[in-house]
Design brief:
With 302 residues, the chain is of the alpha+beta class. The protein is 22% helix and 29% strand. Strands 1-2-3-4-14-6-16-5 form an 8-stranded mixed β-sheet, with helices on one face. A 3-stranded antiparallel β-sheet has the order 13-7-15. It has a 3-stranded antiparallel β-sheet with strand order 9-8-12. It starts with a strand and ends with a helix.
Length: 302
């Protein structure tokens, strides 16, 4: 771990330790259950700098967890999954054992027109080993592309759906390169879990490019890996990160998360090409073209 840097926030000294070159920092010296005013703004600035923050030894109640999340915007429970134990409309809970976790790289709920802005997660119970979480910087992934690839991706959009939640009917189209609304930095905004298709390419071309980009995002030099302890709170910027839970544990792993809803992703410019869908009856199309055709048809009718 890097040497901690002390900062002063509203009269309190915090220790901030950077965890990896691309993203991630651990913050000590703040009580999130009591944070407000200038401390909230300091946390917001740290998040813009480090993209994902970790606060050990917090042990927030449900009420304090929800209240902390509300400082950053409107909260929403998970649109497709239900809490197993805790009944709260603004909090999502996941209880898992023997690896029952989302072990694909993803940005939260990109199948919505306005995906999550931020997630704030508390680890309530975790196994002694295993179940770590990894995050990837989508800014670093974009910056690492060659200029020709950057230019190509900036002119493309992609179709996302909620198929992993058995709701493939829930879909949205977002730019492949997203511009962060607060920092202006560009991010590679596709993920293996929810992104189905490059809209402006045929199915084969889309498969090749999307496969390359989703693998590229997971390059170790863009990532940080965090080993949990009970009571740790993590928060991350969904506009410029992906995450992945390692499916390598046995035992109870219980998390609670609040989700701050965001805005509609904006690209560098308008798409440079029209959507690519084979002409003809939808019933005669490949499944890749049929899904895109139906989404575009509904959008046109609306």
């Amino acid at each position: 771990m890097a040497e901690a840097v002390k900062i002063e926030a509203s009269g309190a000294d915090w220790e901030v330790s950077r965890l990896a070159t691309s993203l991630g920092a651990e913050v000590r010296g703040v009580d999130l259950g009591q944070a407000q005013g200038g401390q909230i703004e300091a946390i917001r600035e740290l998040l813009l700098e480090h993209l994902v923050l970790f606060f050990p030894e917090q042990h927030l109640s449900v009420e304090d967890h929800v209240a902390f999340g509300r400082h950053f915007g409107v909260l929403e429970g998970h649109p497709n999954l239900k809490n197993p134990f805790t009944d709260h409309p603004e909090l999502f809970e996941l209880a898992a054992s023997k690896g029952g976790v989302a072990d694909e790289w993803h940005t939260d709920i990109t199948f919505q027109d306005e995906p999550a802005l931020m997630s704030v997660l508390q680890m309530l119970r975790c196994p002694p080993t295993g179940g770590d979480t990894m995050w990837s910087s989508l800014h670093a992934a974009y910056d690492g592309l060659s200029e020709p690839m950057q230019e190509l991706c900036e002119g493309l959009t992609a179709l996302h759906d909620a198929h992993p939640h058995d709701r493939a009917d829930k879909m949205a189209i977002h730019p492949v390169v997203r511009v962060h609304p607060e920092t202006g930095r560009r991010a590679l905004y596709v993920n293996e879990h929810f992104t189905r298709r490059i809209v402006e390419m045929n199915a084969g071309e889309s498969e090749a490019l999307l496969g390359y980009l989703t693998r590229w995002v997971t390059s170790p030099r863009f990532t940080v890996r965090y080993r949990w302890s009970e009571g740790t709170v993590a928060m991350w910027d969904n506009r410029c990160t992906q995450h992945f839970v390692l499916n390598d544990f046995e035992g109870e792993r219980i998390i609670q998360r609040v989700t701050v809803m965001g805005d509609k992703p904006v690209g560098v410019a308008a798409p440079r090409w029209a959507p690519h869908v084979r002409k003809g009856r939808a019933s005669a199309m490949s499944r890749h073209d049929r899904q895109l055709h139906r989404f575009l048809s509904k959008a046109h009718e609306a």
